[in-house]
Amino acid sequence: MKKTPPLVRLVYVSRNRLSGDAATMEREVANILAVSRRNNVRAGVTGALLFNADCFAQTLEGRRDAVEAVFERIQCDPRHSDTVVLQLEQAVPAFADWSMAYGGRLDDERARFDRLSNDADQATRGAAADSVLALLRSVVSRALPALG
Ligand SMILES: Cc1cc2nc3c(=O)[nH]c(=O)nc-3n(C[C@H](O)[C@H](O)[C@H](O)COP(=O)(O)O)c2cc1C
Asked: Is 2 part of a structural domain of the chain?
């Protein structure tokens, strides 16, 4: 029997480089989500995304080669910068039902979220990844069922 390759999870945070007012930013993120969902279905990648005025946080799940290929593209995107990978390891997908779930704009969580990216030095990355995942899980389940 053919062995299924192990699945990995990548968690990263980055600096939001979108400009404009809240509505403009929401529109731009909607564009990102639309393209992500189309591409990720094709690539067999799932995950979740959230942002605030300063940061993005995203998890990508799937076969390692597929996740790495998507992340290569994402890293070159000028709509954000300073990507910090908090976790890349074998894992059971947490968002297997979503090509890219959307946690929304989390300005009320701003302090916590900003701290995650600022404190993401080597020693604290594991804990930061767990916090990002917990945050994504909680906001995505709250945002149900309006997700694709
Ligand atoms: C924060 C952020 C997250 C993104 N997430 C994804 C993603 O999950 N999948 C994806 O294909 N593109 C994602 N993108 C968009 C890519 O950077 C890139 O624009 C897109 O993959 C190009 O797709 P296209 O060649 O089909 O136009 C993201 C961009 C940003 C800024």
From this structure: no
